Amino acid sequence: MLTRTFLPTHLLVSRCFSSVTSKTLVKVGDVFRETRVFSSEDVKAYAEVSHDCNPLHFDPESARKAGFENRLVHGMLVSSMFPRIISAHFPGAVYVSQSLHFRSPVYVGDEILGLVQATALRETKNKYIVKFSTKCFKNHKELVVLDGEATAILPTLEMLQPSSSE
């Protein structure tokens, strides 16, 4: 039931493949991307699970009175793009940390580009600790809405899908 609720049917995957071989390993500098449009239904479903029913997410007038153009998408919902992008390329990845800086509001209906770039790799006990730079943009990569860093433990450096060049 939760899977059906939270897997968006309108997710747009946008990847440019740098090299396709039978076995592609992640390396520092590899970039992974995904595009998503957050809907009213996404905001409602997130609010039900998180119990964050702030009127800024549901009432356009409240949002305008607070200085925003329209209803806001929850910042943590936007940031959920990062573990989604990582796990799409590395099944079994364990997401262990995330720092976030909310730079600009995201409104219902905005198209958001999420980028995750490998910045450091370290092997430990047959697993790999990978640090990623994380960013979300809107307006065709003109405006950073969210950025930070994430760390994940990967069972292998082999990617399920190749990365794109940045």
From TrEMBL:
<dbReference type="GO" id="GO:0005739">
    <property type="term" value="C:mitochondrion"/>
</dbReference>
<protein>
    <recommendedName>
        <fullName>MaoC-like domain-containing protein</fullName>
    </recommendedName>
</protein>
<dbReference type="InterPro" id="IPR050965">
    <property type="entry name" value="UPF0336/Enoyl-CoA_hydratase"/>
</dbReference>
<dbReference type="GO" id="GO:0006633">
    <property type="term" value="P:fatty acid biosynthetic process"/>
</dbReference>
<dbReference type="GO" id="GO:0019171">
    <property type="term" value="F:(3R)-hydroxyacyl-[acyl-carrier-protein] dehydratase activity"/>
</dbReference>
<feature type="domain" description="MaoC-like">
    <location>
        <begin position="33"/>
        <end position="127"/>
    </location>
</feature>
<dbReference type="InterPro" id="IPR002539">
    <property type="entry name" value="MaoC-like_dom"/>
</dbReference>
<dbReference type="Pfam" id="PF01575">
    <property type="entry name" value="MaoC_dehydratas"/>
</dbReference>
<dbReference type="InterPro" id="IPR029069">
    <property type="entry name" value="HotDog_dom_sf"/>
</dbReference>
<keyword id="KW-0456">Lyase</keyword>
